[in-house]
Amino acid sequence: MQGGSGQSSMPFPSGSIDKTRVYDVKPLRSLDPVFPNSAQAPSSDGTCPSGFSPFFPFGAPQVPQASPPRVPMPTPIRAYRIPEPGEETPARASNGESTDNQKRAASNKSRSSQKKAKKSQDLQIDVSSLIGLSTSDREEGNRDVVNVVLMTFDGLRRRLSQLEDAKELTPGLVKRADMKAGNVLMSTGIRTNMKKRIGGVPGVEVGDIFYFRLELCVVGLHSQSMGGIDYTTIRGEYEDEAVALGIVSSGKYDDHTEDSNILIYSGQGGEKGDDQKLERGNLALDRSSRRKNEVRVIRGMKDPANPNSKVYLYDGLYKVQDTWIEKGKSGGGVFKYKFERIPGQASAFALWKSIEKWKAGVTSRTGLILPDISSGAEKFPVSLVNDVDGEKAPGYFTYLHSLRYSKSSIVPLAPDRCNCVKDCVPGDLNCSCIRRNEGDYPYTGNGILVSRKPLVHECGPLCQCFPTCKNRISQTGLKYHMEVFKTKDRGWGLRSLDPIRVGTFICEYAGEVVDRARDNDEYVFDTTRNFNPFKWNYEPKLLEEASTNDASEEYNIPSPLIISAKNVGNVARFMNHSCSPNVFWQPVVYEENNQSFVHIVFFALRHIPPLTELTYDYGIAGSAGSSAPKWRRKCLCGSSKCRGSFG
DNA sequence: GCATTATCATGCTG
DNA sequence: CCAGCATGATAATG
């Protein structure tokens, strides 16, 4: 049974698969990708707006219909933009081709997706205005929409996680805040890219990272919450056609190869030694292979910071170049698919592999000046790199990882400490530190900040709890391998060699506490500046049970705090400004030397892929009493929301 | 239209 | 560290 004969559209009649023979996949001409000369051809990145001339990812438009089929052929995939019922479909209509099937699929789709939402329809309308999502945003996303959906997901997830942590230990309780948050978002329509499409998903970029499978669902990158193969079925005139959309490779089945552009993926099914069947996802991958369709590839990676959790890396588009059958470990036949990466995409998985080698010292990297500019002051080395120009080092400073109070008029707060034994326990209102946090433990079990707050109260050295207590996150030092690097046009900058999960502690702003910043001092953190307000916490209206009276994100700092990192400081002094930053600051207070001081602590605003520059909002001085500094500068952050200047 | 099914998830226990 | 378990959500399938 050869698949390459080109005669049959079913190369594997069920039940008569010859597992010993390598599966020959000469391309079937009649199954080559067919994109009609219409405005609805999918573009490779999905950004082609309807009404504009289509982009043909395979070069010139192909005319495979030239060779007439002798057997009933499946209807070629016309377009993945399934029209809404009642929506005009000018290109197709003028071709005189039936769209009944697509319309049927579309109406099925919208019905089934709204089925669950029906009971909370009121909420859905309320919620979409709340979050600012339109119906078309749900259908097709963009960078901002994807970001809003992800922020909403994790805000709710963190809050639910916090509530779970505070509950009594009950044997039956399974902590799955991710599923609950995902379910709420799916059922209230806080999701995007519901329209299935081959190729890239608008708003998701190659190299983007995710920490839960449900995040992939809500942004429409991979709609299966567990399944590794995302596919759909096209209703054809004569028969239905399965098409693969994407895969998640968890690495469980030795899928990774030496060549970063190649991935060997195993089919699904065949659990207890049975042969896998050419159906569902397996069939879809086979079809996509013949059609040479693009398939999204998401690679499940070990999280370097947390061995228990996984990072999902979007590695862009691949094509299935070869498929065959192997004998699996349990004896049954297993489908194998050889994925080959489409050239010209941003480096993602390959970059991760390079970083692993740098960290292990296997390969030296270009531009490395110093392995550790902290000279051992930090737990992890802070490398110094310049692959842009000849500058050898930033100006001299002394490395210090916390605050120094010199000639400051800061009035320390009254000290307070808890008497907990071992670790402070979430939900324990006998703990005075938890009480000062309005009864909420500020961090989740794995140390992630739950909400921005007026002030976070951490345990201090004189608290009776163990130093391992989770309520000391900002005092535990760097968690990542950071790197100071020379940017193209903004001096030195800061980035991480490890992926950073939203809400994780990055570092505090170390330096000397001063009464007033000197005019020429560019290394200043000043809490009196005006900062762009932004929403990071969960939306209390989303879920009654997650609500609380105090969800304020306004900072409440007892007295103005100005820190200069010109002479002494840590990695934070290298972080540049951006008007759409990926890091934010949070005031944190704890006791030291019988006094309590406020610290400025940085947390990840969103997931940050490795080697992405870390930035925060420097704020703007001047409006409320304090005079504008002499060094206010033109902003080069490049964001679409850029305010033009900062400082 | 509704229930069933398959699935490279998670978190936790042993 | 890993195997195994319980609880699951999604969308295709029947």
From TrEMBL:
Ranges in a coiled coil: none
Entry's localization field: Chromosome, Centromere; Nucleus
Keyword Zinc-finger set for record: no
Domain (YDG) ranges: 199-341
Keyword Flavoprotein listed: no
Comp. bias (Pro residues): 66-75
Lineage of origin: Eukaryota, Viridiplantae, Streptophyta, Embryophyta, Tracheophyta
All copies of domain Pre-SET, residue ranges: 416-477
Listed GO MF terms: double-stranded DNA binding; histone methyltransferase activity; zinc ion binding
Cellular component GO terms, alphabetical: chromosome, centromeric region; nucleus
Region (Disordered): 1-121
InterPro entries (UniProt xref): H3-K9-MeTrfase_plant, H3K9_HMTase_SUVAR3-9, Post-SET_dom, Pre-SET_dom, PUA-like_sf, SET_dom, SET_dom_sf, SRA-YDG_sf
A biological process from GO: methylation
Protein origin, superkingdom: Eukaryota
Signal peptide: none
UniProt name for this protein: Histone-lysine N-methyltransferase, H3 lysine-9 specific SUVH1-like
Basic and acidic residues bias: start-end ranges: 18-29
Biased composition (Low complexity): 49-61
Record domain SET: where: 480-619
Chief localization: nucleus
Domain called Post-SET: residue spans: 631-647
Biased composition (Polar residues): 37-47
PROSITE patterns (UniProt xref): POST_SET (PS50868), PRE_SET (PS50867), SAM_MT43_SUVAR39_2 (PS51575), SET (PS50280), YDG (PS51015)
Keywords: Centromere, Chromatin regulator, Chromosome, Methyltransferase, Nucleus, S-adenosyl-L-methionine, Transferase
